[in-house]
Amino acid sequence: MTEPLLEVRDLTVEFRSGGAWHPAVRNVDLSIAPRETLAVVGESGSGKSVTALAVMGLVPAPAGRIAAGSSIRLSGRELVGLGERELDRVRGDRVAMIFQEPMTALNPTMTVGEQVAESVRAHRGLGAQAARREALRVLDLVKVPSAARRMDDYPHQFSGGMRQRVMIAMALACHPAVLLADEPTTALDVTIQAQVLSLVEDLKREHGLGVLFITHNLGVVALIADRVAVMYAGEVVETAPAAELFETPRHPYTEALLASMPRVDRDVGALEPIQGNVPSIREIGPGCAFAPRCAHAQARCRESRPRLEPEGAARSVRCWLRTASP
Amino acid sequence: MGEFLLRRLALAVPTLLLAMTAVFLLARVVPGDPALVILGDQATQEALLALRVKLGLDRPLPAQYLDFLGGILRGDLGRSLITGKSVWAEVLAVIPYTLELTLAAIFLGVLFGVPLGVYAAVHRNALPDTLTRLFSLAGLSFPAFVSAVLLLLVFAIQLRWFPVISAPRAGDVLDHLRNLALPAANLGLIMTAYVTRVTRSSMLNVLGEDYVRTARAKGIGRRAVLWRHALRNALIPVATVVGLYLGTLIGNSVLTEIVFNRPGLGKLILGALNQRDYTLLQGLMVFFAGLIVLANAATDIAYGLIDPRVRYR
To answer: Does residue B81 belong to any structural domain of this protein?
Structure first.
């Protein structure tokens, strides 16, 4: 197996609320290999975005912090504990992020050309002219039509899909090893969604990117993911190759998630919503976080927290029912 | 941009018309016969009548209104009852002083207020922020004439760094600045307090925006995030506030001019009031209304320069 580009070990991110620290992300393990797309799925509030922000060193301080013992390695280099200056040399250069809202994630007072060029200037030390040429090249790469003319336009003059392309151009400007995409297509029309997804796919193949793709859309997962990590209440509850996850989900939450997914070949009546809500980070008990909503929960599920145990070579699951009777 | 400018200036026309109408009506509903006030109780009926005819007060209201507007359109703001000079001449004689004072105050306000506001926002809730907020609250709570007297007491009378009465020697730039210093500091203090507050809150808003996070994710460095990405957006409300505050600033400059005994629009208005120079007052009101409408238009135009979205709308 090739050396992972990104390796997250035992990541815990806490937020202060009411005078105490509560973990929003708990003991998360993830890894991404070159040319691999890892989809992170889960409901809102499951800690997907916080995990990505932690990798970028963008956990909002002083309300949030990465707990001691967490490790985030990028191409072997530890990122946890780096100062802002050192982080600035890594982010935007070796690891880049695309945010969810293309409408608000671009600066309204700068032209898109400036916004793409500035990261090239910062990381490659290019002059204004050279950076501009490079920005044009990247905008062409992400297929912004007549980029040469449009790079002097402002974000509000672009459509949502085009803005997301600009976001991708900004992220890819310095050829990062890892791309974090936080629901990049959620705010877009379905047809535009497909274009953006296939664009990310092409770039991954051509540039050997590792992609961490955050989504709550299982249809998108089926389309693009090589592997999937399912998150629930701040924990990874199951990881598996995408096809196997859809075929044989192992964690009760994954099962429930798949059962709640609308499909053309089944009636709406066959949909099974998951009862209850994701617990808030302040009210998670000592046991399995999913136990209160789990149809198969037993006494031990409520008392102690299961670990993420490997199942075979490529899968792992965090569930007492699976580890007890393999 | 040229079209945007024209459109914005065209928008000022109805506002101006409304303001002029208000001035006209105000001057007419004020109780008392101007002619009687001017000539006094002892005046003969003939003399009163002659003055009313001279002032055009004998004609019906709509005709007076049209005369008034026509005068303004020709750029004629009337004549002072006392000196007989045109309002324009009176205004032009003193406006450089007020303009100089107001611009100096805005300059000081932006020069100190913007960095202070940014600093406070970045160190939110820490000691520097608290101190900055205290300072700006104090600056805003002080009436201009009180701070003016305090400045005079400390810097002109105790320390003798600056003259008590502004009377610069002509042609001496340094002396001129020395005379400008205290009045400008007085207004500038208020302006700084104001700009600091607005910059701080605007900056706090902007720092929470998605695009600031995007900028940080690019690894371009803290300084670029702060000054290139955040400040430019944060300045939009600041520009508005500075523009809107221009009216208040002119009002405060009136008080400041009086305390520092400085020539300017303030002293002109005070003189007109004391001498019951109605025509001069009316002309000055028209002038002020026009000034404020223009200041607002200039604000919007500054908006367009900072925020491209306004320009293209």
So the answer is: no
Residues in CB range of A119: below 8 A, 6 or more apart = A92, A93, A170, A173, A174, B218, B219, B220
Residue B70 belongs to some domain of the structure: no
Name every chain B residue with its beta carbon within 8 A of the beta carbon of A85.
221
**Residues B307, A92: C-beta atoms closer than 8 Å:** no
- Cβ–Cβ under 8 Å, residues A182 and A214: yes
Q: How many domains does chain B have?
A: 1
Rounded to the nearest angstrom, the minimum Cα separation between A56 and chain B is: 7
Using an 8 Å CB-CB cutoff, list chain A residues near B224: 118, 122
- At residue B166, what is the residue type? S
B227 vs chain A: nearest CA distance in angstroms? 12
How near does any CA of chain A get to the CA of B214, in Å? 6
B307–A109: do the CB atoms touch at under 8 Å? yes
CB contact under 8 A, B218 and A122: yes
What residue in A sits closest to B236 (Cα-Cα)? A109
CATH number at residue B122: 1.10.3720.10
User: CATH 3.40.50.300 in chain A, residues?
Assistant: 6-94+176-324
Report if residue B168 sits inside a domain. Answer: yes
What lies within 8 Å, CB to CB, of A38 at 6+ separation is A30, A31, A32, A210, A211, A212, A213, A225, A226, A227, A228, A229
The one-letter amino acid at B307: D
For B159, the domain range is: 93-276
Nearest to A107 by CA among A159, A155, A58, A172: A155
Pairing of strands A64-66, A37-41: unpaired
Name the fold adopted by A6-94+176-324. Answer: Rossmann fold (3.40.50)
Instruction: Note whether residue B82 is domain-resident.
Output: no
pLDDT tens track of chain A, all 326 residues? 567 899 999 999 999 988 889 999 999 999 999 999 999 998 888 899 999 999 999 998 788 999 999 999 999 899 999 998 999 999 999 999 998 887 889 999 999 999 999 999 999 888 889 999 999 999 988 888 999 999 999 999 998 888 988 998 999 888 899 999 998 887 777 777 888 888 888 888 888 899 999 998 888 898 899 999 999 999 999 999 999 999 999 999 999 888 887 766 767 666 777 777 777 777 788 889 899 888 888 899 998 999 999 988 889 999 998 875 54
Long-range contacts of B115-118 (CB under 8 A, 24+ apart): B116/B192, B116/B196, B116/B199, B116/B200, B117/B195, B117/B196, B117/B197, B117/B198, B117/B199, B117/B200, B117/B202, B117/B203, B117/B238, B118/B199, B118/B200, B118/B203, B118/B226, B118/B231, B118/B234
Query: Is some CB atom of chain A closer than 8 A to the CB atom of B312?
Result: yes
Question: What residues of A are in the B interface, CB distance below 8 Å?
Answer: 56, 58, 84-85, 87-93, 96-97, 99, 101, 104-110, 118-119, 121-123, 154, 156-157, 167, 170
Contacts of A170 in chain B (CB under 8 A): 214, 218
A194 torsion bin: left (phi>0), alpha (psi -120 to 50), beta (else) = alpha
The model carries a pTM of: 0.76
